[in-house]
Every structure is written in structure tokens, then in C-alpha cells.
Amino acid sequence: MGKLLEVKDLRVSFHTYAGEVKAVRGVSFELNEGETLAIVGESGCGKSITSKSILRLIPSPPGDIKKESQILYKDKDILKMNEKELRMLRGGEISMIFQDPMTSLNPTMKIGKQIAENLIVHRGMNKKEAIKEAVKMLQMVGIPNAQERVNQYPHQFSGGMRQRVMIAIALACNPKILIADEPTTALDVTIQAQIMDLMKELQNNLGTAIILITHDLGVVASIAHRIQVMYAGMVVERGTTDEIFYNPKHPYTWALLKSVPRLETKHKDTLYSIKGTPPDLLKPPVGCPFASRCEYCMEICKEQMPKPTKISDTQEVSCFLLHPNAPKVEPPQGIGGKL
Amino acid sequence: MESLDKSKFRIIGIDESEAETIVRPNLTYWQDAWRRLKQNKVAIFSLFLLILLFLLCIFGPYIGPDYKFQDMSVRNQGPSAAHWFGTDTLGRDLFSRLWIGGRVSLSIGFVGTLIEVIIGCIYGGISGYFGGSVDDVMMRIVEILNSIPYMIVVIILSVILKPGIVSLLLALCITGWTGMARMVRGQVMQLKESEYILAAKALGSDSNRIIFKHLIPNTIGIIIVYTTFDIPSFIFAEAFLSFIGLGIQPPKTSWGALCSYGQQTMDFYPHQLLFPALAICITMLAFNLLGDGLRDALDPKLRQ
Amino acid sequence: MMNENLIEVKNLKKYFKISKHDILKAVDNVSFNIRKGETLGLVGESGCGKTTCGRTVLGLYEATDGEILFKGKDISKLRGNEKKEFTKNAQIIFQDPYASLDARMTVGDIIAEGIDIHNLHTGKERTEKIYELLSLVGLNKEHASRFPHEFSGGQRQRIGIARALAVEPEFIVCDEPISALDVSIQAQVVNLLINLQRNLGLTYLFIAHDLSMVKHISDRVGVMYLGNLVELASSGVLYDKPLHPYTQALLSAIPIPDPDVSRTRKRIMLEGEVPSPINPKPGCRFAPRCKYAKPICKEVDPVLKEVEKDHFVSCHLY
Known about the structure:
Helix content of chain A: 25-40%
Structural class of chain A: alpha/beta
Number of domains of chain A: 2
Strand order of the largest sheet of chain A: 7-8-9-3-10-11-13-12
CATH class of the largest domain in chain A: Alpha Beta
Shape of chain C: globular
Number of strands of chain C: 12
CATH superfamily of the largest domain in chain A: P-loop containing nucleotide triphosphate hydrolases
Strand order of the largest sheet of chain C: 6-7-8-3-9-10-12-11
Number of domains of chain C: 1
CATH architecture of the largest domain in chain A: 3-Layer(aba) Sandwich
Order of helices and strands of chain A: EEEHEEEHEHHHHHEHEHEEHHHEE
CATH topology of the largest domain in chain A: Rossmann fold
Mean pLDDT of chain C: 87
CATH topology of chain C: Rossmann fold
Largest interface: A-C, 49 and 48 residues
Number of strands of chain A: 13
Mean pLDDT of chain A: 85
Largest sheet of chain C: 8 strands, mixed
Oligomer: heterotrimer
Order of helices and strands of chain C: EEEHEEHEHHHHEHEHEEHHHEE
Low-confidence stretches of chain A: none
Radius of gyration of chain C: 20 Å
Distance between the termini of chain C: 31 Å
CATH class of chain C: Alpha Beta
Helix content of chain C: 25-40%
Strand content of chain A: 15-25%
Number of helices of chain C: 11
Distance between the termini of chain A: 30 Å
CATH architecture of chain C: 3-Layer(aba) Sandwich
């Protein structure tokens, strides 16, 4: 598996009247060919902004990607590409699907044409070929009667079907990377399961690498290879899916895992919940951003930012609890080990 | 890892009061709107220009000679130290006349818009709030009023009534409020479906409370924007009617009437047309630019 | 002790007329009761009529047919003071924490809305009450003068809860109160609701599409599909032994936060999507997607019947 995408020290700020909001504060990660990386975190943690930066979709102003940031796709810096290179990259090499399929589809254009458009631009097909290919794509994402449905408009599709169409559009040009920004949040549970299965199946068949962004750890358990937990614009823990679920080290990951209710939990027991709200990144704390909500917060946490500690080749955690001087803390009951 | 003071590694847990603090400044809707309006240089410049125009209309006529005073010895003079904007065919000081005319034009703009806002809000508000057949009937009436050619109404009214400010206002307002009514109706219909209105209903509030506590405060921003665009259109309509002789009659004057006189001597004394025309242009432009700025500043979607 | 019915819904129907020939049957012949002090969960996918059902129970929508009894009194027959008294007793919390708070009012005024309407407190007492409510939902005094847009989703939802609590209701319809929130914040709100129920003896109708949270908070759970109530049972029984094929499919779609389990689990996959509730065909609404469907399912509407004690299901299989 080769390295496909490498993000190095990504920093993104937004300039507002009240000052500079540091939405992403030094995020680095890489993505290998054919793997699924899940980025998990609460709203406002910078996960969407990170993914949008990869396609340079951050409006500027007010957005501002700092100079020291680098996003290397096949060793070429996306942040330094010109407009033409960017156009070829977007949709051709890397494509993206969003949370709300209705707003990302053009309501006045037939579905078939919306898929074909990409094919004509990126794969140089003529119109007839492109429409034929569009029908194939719709069949691939599991839309029945594809032959007739290419001639329909988005409003004639249900929410789940629209998301399938979005996936078809995104995969039309055989991209190397698919970025899925909360693709199932707006959908019902049964549809959610269908879409997740579809993405997994397509990845097996096409070998596309997927960056999956979500706030729900439960959703990614079956699909992700690696997980990266973000909080207040930083990565606090990363590891393989098994490491994150069975051997998590960061109190925030513990909290995320615990706050998912399980069908086995006792009725009306107090659920574990994270107190308070994430810090306002207008004035990010000097120390660990999670300190004010962390049960295991130490004095040092409020004064300094913890550095990443390697647990294994794949797992990395930024927390002072792993410092040799720190007291030994066991993860809360029900976390870690086989569930 | 570098060595760190061991004493700092003591678990202190969560300080509850800290976890929910808000660090951003506390701004009310109007403070926030003003802050955003201030960022818009063009809108602020327009606002400044408008204030200047108002002040001149209030105090301008007292600076020069009386606007009705005819001095035949100084007919049709160009701008000079004695008469800043020159004089007209009857030797009257154009500087004074311009601001007296401005008083009339601006008052028609403001009073007309005020009447329109009052009628339009009440009518549109009732129509939108009650909906159903009430709405159907009220909107049909609006459509009928809209289908009557506005010029005909104005001309008939000016002929029946004695031409003057009152008949002019009446003519302009009789159909003018329909646009405002439609806009308010649309807003109210949209807002009344929102969840906070539903929450208020669930709490048992009556129509009065919903209208005054929720609907009006939430539409006022848009009404203000609409008003800013409406004032210049009233001024323009007045100027147009006075220009074709249906509006203000001498010895009273307005910007439209001044233009009308100026146009008669345009070939020889272009300044007689230039100044009133310029006043109309600047006012219209300033109101429109300010309206644009206000629209951005008062848009709730742009609040962060 | 928990046998007294606070709410009884009998054959409730709520139709919306879309056009001359099209009738949207949002809620069609639904009956259930809610006992004092219990939580009844209502689950189903979007468009199944659960929100309409909740709003109709509160009298926010006028029922097309059927009866809604609150403490034995038909709410559609309440007038004047009685009606006002009912709004004081029955409250609602909304799904969207952004749309449900008036952006132009301070949080203090939003919370005090019910107090002002019913003239419960004035002056200093009113301020005290606002502070008390804020601390009840875990916010502090300083927040009273702030505006809703300054708060996060979870905080706004708690403001919505405080607003409903201000009139000291007995019954609250929670209309998807957690669906728009992050998973980590959902627990905060659910814990708050459970604690309030314990301390204040509240009765909830808890509407959601997230089955795991519903199981956690509810005593009994009703499953809705296209305007019909297809199954109703105590939450433990429903999750251990679901009878209706739709309930079974719904349960098997819940994501499990355990990679090994969720990788190997066999899901019951539903074919297709929920059909439109406009002019539904006769027979069981679920029949076109049901793998057990028999000819009778497409002809005769199944009725809700008690298969085991306190376990109701509406399906021709039983």
C-alpha cells in the first residue's frame, strides 16, 4: 500500500469581527491507497474544514490556510496548485460527497446529465457515451430502473436515493480518493446502513481510498481501517479501528466511546456524558484543549500542550496521562478490551 | 519526553464553572447590525451624505435670501458669491429654492413611505397570519389594485382634487402599499411555520403576543431595508409628477418642479436644471447604497 | 401506582389535503395511552408521522378524527381557561435547536415566555425563576442576557427544555430532541431529561429515530410506519423479541460501536425505501417491502392486537 495523500501541519483560521478563529491547529496525517480513514469529532472540531482544505474549498476571506501547511497528493502540494490543476484534481482524482444531498444536486438538471457532466470534463467522453456510462453508474450504486431514472430530476428521488446519486457522481471518474463528509447524518437508520454497506462494497470493487468524516463512532466501526479522533482543531488520538475501540488511551476517546448508548446498558441508568462544551477557538486554551472537560485533568494539562506519544506503529496519543510522571489511570469500566 | 515538575501531575478534575463559559462579546441584534454596517464603507458614506442633505434642507433656506423673493435685477445668473447656485428667470435664489424644494421632496418620500409601511404591514400581516380564505380575499384585492394603471389613478386624482402635497401623497399611496403588503405577508407566512412560533403557541400565547413579540421583531429588519429602497422611489415619483405639472404648484416648489423650470431654459442656463437634478440623483443613489448595506447588515443568516 | 392514564389517544387520524385528489395520511388510526410518570417512546423513519402525532396530541394540529383525552378530558373540547390550563400542563421540546429559539430574544426572555403568558411570576421573582431554571439545565446566570446564536447545539437544546419547564408541566412531548445533536452531547440531554423526570415526576412522549437512545429512556416503545402504529411493547421486550418484520429490520440496522461484532453481524436488509404516504394503498403499509408478505397483507388492513400481555402488534403473521 503506497502513500496517496499526506497532510502536514495543516493550519486554517477564519477571520471574524471578534478576532481570528483558529479552526484547525496543526493537523498532520496520511492516507494510503485503498484504505478508509475515519475522522471523528464533535461539531466545530475542525474535521469538515480539514477535509474541505484538501480540495481547497475553504472560502477566502474569511478562511485562511496558513503558509506552513502542506497537503501532498502524490508528492505534489495541492495548496500550491494553479486553477487548471485544481480543476483536474477536483472530481477527477479526489471527489467529495456532503451531508445534505439535496443542496449539492442541481434541482433544475436531470440526474443523468449531472453525472455525465463530470465524465465529459474529466474523461473526455462524448455526450452519448457519457449518458450510457451514467446509467451504468446508477446501476452500480443500486438504483433500480436506472435507464428511466437518468431522465428524472433530483426532487423525484428520496433522501437515500439522492445520496446514492451523489456517490455515483463522485465515483464517475474513478477518483483515487473519496471524501465523505457526514454522508449518513441526514438519513434514517435503515438507509444509513444501506449507504454504509454500499460504500464498503464499492471500495472493495474499485479500490478507492475513503476519508469518512463523522461525529458517530458507532457508524465507522464496520467500515474504517484507521480512525483519527479530532478535538478543538487538533488530532488527539489516532490508531487502527481495533486500537481505538479496544485499546483507547485518550480520555476524550473514552468519553466518545462511552457516550454511545449500547443496547445492553441498563434502562434509565445515567449515561456517561461529556460535561460542558468544546472551547471557543477564538481563544484556544494554552494547554490541552480537552482539559476543562476532562475528568483526569491535571495542573500540567492547563499549562502546556501535550506532545504526541507513540503507543504502537499505528497508534499515537496526545495526553499527559501517558507521561512517566503521571499517575496511573485505568480507563473507565466498559472501555478497552473486548466489549 | 522532557522532564516536567512532578507536582503538576495531580488530577484536579473538572471545574464545572469553566466548562460552559462564553468568551465572545455579548452583542444585541442592533449592535451587531451596526457593527457590520460600519464595515461597509460605501453605505456609511451614503449615510453621511444623506445626513448632510437633511441638514441642508433644514438650515439651507436660512443661509441665503428668501426663496420667494424675486429680484428682477439678477435674473438667470450663474453661480456666484451672492447666489451660490445662481438664480432663476424670476431672479430667485436657487440655493434657497433647492433646499425648500428638498424639504417638500424628502417629506413626501418619508411621509409616503410611512403611510405605506403602516398600511402594508397591517394588511400584509393580517393576510399572512390568518391565511386561508382571509388571505385569498385580501390578496385578490391587492391584485385588482395592482392591475389598475397607476398613472391613470394619479392623473384622475390630481384632476379631481386640487393639485398639491396632499393629493400627491394620496395618489402615490393609494396603490403604492401593495408591494409592502405582499412582502410582509410572505415573511409572516414563512415565520409563522417556524418552530419558535409553534413553541409559543404550545405555551398558550395568543395571537397578540405572537404578533408583537415574535413576528414584528423578526420582520422589522427586512421592513427597514424595504423602506430604504422605497423612499427614493417616492421621491422619484414626486419629481416625475411635478415635472409633468401634476404635482407641486408655484409658488411652492420641489426638486421635480425645479427640474421642470430648469428644463425650459436648459439650452441657455444649464445650471438651473443641473442642481436640482443632481440633488435627486445623489439622494436616490445614497438611499439605494445604504439600503444595500442595511440588507447585508440586517440579514440574520449572516450573523455568526 | 403507574396505572393511571395521563393521556389516552383513540383512533387518532390526521390527514393533510395536498390537492383535490391527494390526501396525505400522516397519522392513520393510531391508538395508545401514556401512564402517569412513564416515558412512551415513538420511533420510526422520517415521514412515518411520529412528529405529526406528537403535535396533534398537544393540540397544535387539529385532529381529523379520533379522540385525545388528557386526564380524561377531550382536548379538542377545551375552551378558554381550560385550554390555557392545558398548555400549562402539556409542553413540547423541538428537534431543531436553531429554529426553535427566537433569535431576537435574550435567553432569559425565551425561558420566561411561559411565565409571562400565564402571569406566573413578575419582577424579581421572575428573574429568580429564570436563574433557577438555568441552573436546573446546567447553565448559569450570565447566560440569561445572551442571545441564542451564541450557544452550541446542546446548550440551545437545554434552553428549549428550560422554556418548557418554566410552566411546570406534567407532560412533555420530546420531538426528536437529540437527533440534531452530536453523539457526545446527546447523552447530556438524555441524562437531563431522565433526571428531571425522576425529580419532577414528568411524563414524556419521546419521539426519535435513534432506537438505542429510545430504548434507554423509554418504559414502553411504539414503532410507527407510514402513519400506522405497527408494534407497541415495553422497551425490554420490544428489543429482545421484536415481532413485526419492520421492527426487526429497524433493530438490525442500529450501528454497533464494536468493530468485531459489526463486521460479522448479519443485517436484515430492507429493500427499497419508504413509499409516499399520499393516497396509500389498502392493506398493510409495509407489505411491499416485507419478505413475509402474504396475499392477505395486500388486501386487509391489519389491526393492532395484543399478542402477549402488553405486547401489541399489527401484523397478519400473528
